[in-house]
Amino acid sequence: MRADEKKLGEYYANPPEDISLANVDLGRIPRHVSIIMDGNGRWAQARGLDRSEGHVAGVDSLREAVTTSVRLGLDVLSVYAFSTENWCRPQHEVNLLMHLFATTLLNELPLFHQENVRLRFFGDIDALPTETAEAFHEGLRETADHTGMTFALAVNYGSRAEIARAAREVAQDVALGTLRSEDIDEKAISSRLYTADLPDPELLIRTSGEMRLSNYLLWQLAYTEFYVTPVMWPDFSRWDFLRAVRAFQGRHRRFGGVVEH
C-alpha cells in the first residue's frame, strides 16, 4: 500500500518538537507492524481507577493505531489483545474484556468500511464466549471483500499453542499420506500458522517498558526489529507510532549476516 501523502500531512499536522512527518522516509514504511498493547491496568491504577478503566481507555489508542497504520500505508497491523494465559486474570476483568471486544469491534465496523480495512484473527476465537465469537465472525463477514490494510487481532492466542496446532496438522497430513515426512520444512509449518499468507512483522512495538515477548508470534518474529517504549498503551498516540517507525528506519537489518540498506 502507498500512503496518501495529503491525508497523511493533515493527520500529522502540528507535530511535537521531537518528531514530525519530515523525520520519516515514506518509501521505507514497514509492511507489517505488530503491537503488544501493554500497561492498561497500570495506567488506570496510577490514576486511582479500576483496571477496567484502563482497558476502556485503550480502545481509543487502538482506533488511532488503526487509522495511523492506514495513513502510513501499512499492509498489515497486528495487535496482541488477549493471550491464552490471560484467562487466569480475575473473572470480572475477563468478562469486561470479552464484552469490550465484542462491542468495540461492532462499533468500529464503520471505520473499517470507511478505510477499506480487512479483519483477521490469530487464535481460537470459537472458544470465546458466544457474544464475542459472534461479533468477531460478523466482523470477518463484513470486511471479507475489503482490499486495503489487514488488521489482525490476536485473541485467545498463544504462540506455543499455535506451533503445536501446526505440528498436529502436519502429523495428520503425514498420516493421511498427503505429505511426506521428508517434505516437512519451514514452509510446511508457516503455512499452517494463523499468519499464513501474511508477511512476518518487520517491526514489533511493545508499550509500558516491558522487555519480553509474552508467548507472542515466536516463530514469526525471528528477524523482527523490536521497539520498546515506556508509554502505557492508553497514552500511545500517532506520534509515538511515528517515533517507532523512525527508530525502525535507523536500524541496519541483518538476516544472518546480510545487511538490508
Offer a few descriptive terms.
alpha/beta, Undecaprenyl pyrophosphate synthetase, 8 helices, 6-stranded parallel beta sheet, 261 residues, globular
Low-pLDDT ranges: none
- Name the helix and strand elements from N-terminus to C-terminus, one letter apiece: HEHHEHEHEHHEEHEE
- Strand portion: 15-25%
CATH superfamily of the domain at 31-158 and 200-249: Decaprenyl diphosphate synthase-like
Q: Your description of this structure?
A:
- With 261 residues, the protein is α/β, with parallel strands linked by helices.
- It has a domain at 31-158 and 200-249: Decaprenyl diphosphate synthase-like (Undecaprenyl pyrophosphate synthetase, 3-Layer(aba) Sandwich), CATH 3.40.1180.10.
- The protein is built from eight helices and eight strands; from the N terminus they run αβααβαβαβααββαββ.
- It has helices at residues 5-11, 40-45, 51-72, 91-114, 130-143, 159-176, 186-190, 238-249; strands at 32-36, 76-83, 118-122, 150-157, 203-206, 225-228, 253-255, 258-260.
- α3 (51-72) packs parallel to α4 and α4 (91-114) runs parallel beside α5.
- The protein is globular.
- It starts with a helix and ends with a strand.
